[in-house]
Write a structure and sequence with these properties.
about 15% strand; globular; binds thymidine-5'-diphosphate; single chain; five-stranded parallel β-sheet; alpha/beta; Rossmann fold
Length: about 210
Amino acid sequence: MMQKGKFIVFEGLDGSGKGTQIQLLTEEMRKRGRIVYQTAEPTSSSTGGMIRDALGGFVSRDAYELSALFLTDRIFHNVNLKNGIAQFLEKGIDVVCDRYYYSSFAYQGTDADLDWVMEMNLGCREIRRPDLCIFLDVDIDSCDERIEKNRLEREIYENKEAQTRIRRRFYEVFEKLKDSENIRIVDAARSIAEVSADILKIYDSINDIETQI
Ligand code: TYD
């Protein structure tokens, strides 16, 4: 029987360097002979467009409404027949995703009820559970500097006060999920090479476990 693809998610605050590290890991996986589909949330679906309007501050949305939009986008991301995650995993293709439901918990789970957001996502059969979540941990000030350097406009969550709340929420959520999910926190306030070497070790360890079984 063909082995399913691995589903790897990257999480972190805005400006934590996810993009760079995702690129580096994906390259290494391909060197190891894996076929990798690289993707991100919010997606480019029409719901993703509604989400981006809200994040940009062009349309005002209630936190519950925003949670539901992310949920809809995530279901589409899993099941759509053109480039849905589920079909790639079934075919043995690995999926590396920039943000997933952990972001909904940390970002929306502060203004909307966290248990409700968690239940909607974790209770939905169409939303696949990742094999691994890598959280890139960087202090708020460094993230803020990177946002300042790289963005012309700030999105609604891209301010220090919100990022501080969100970071705390991420830690609370990881504590709640520690027995049911494979979440690894990586100190990302180091050089790109050091961080990527750590990530590669974690990646190799999830594959070792499988071959041992
Ligand atoms: P981000 O990775 O920062 O994309 P970009 O680099 O294009 O801005 O993600 C966009 C924002 O979406 C980010 O601020 C976090 C937010 N977000 C949520 O609030 N909830 C979610 O469920 C997801 C997936 C993202």
